[in-house]
Amino acid sequence: MNTATTKNKIAVPKAEYLRLKKLEGRFHDFWAYMEHIIDVRMAREEVRNKQVIPQEKLFNRLGL
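Request: output the structure for the sequence above.
Response:
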């Protein structure tokens, strides 16, 4: 089994680092938006399949 020794750090030019951080921020916002859209879609599917109950019924069942 061959092993290769590598450095723990990689040198990245500052301009490239800043560009990557900006790109990361854009994709973070995109993924947060996509998660929100997926959550909304799943909630609508639960309502469509009658898997949710109105809040009033829930409170009545809990005795509140």
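Residues 14-62 form one domain.
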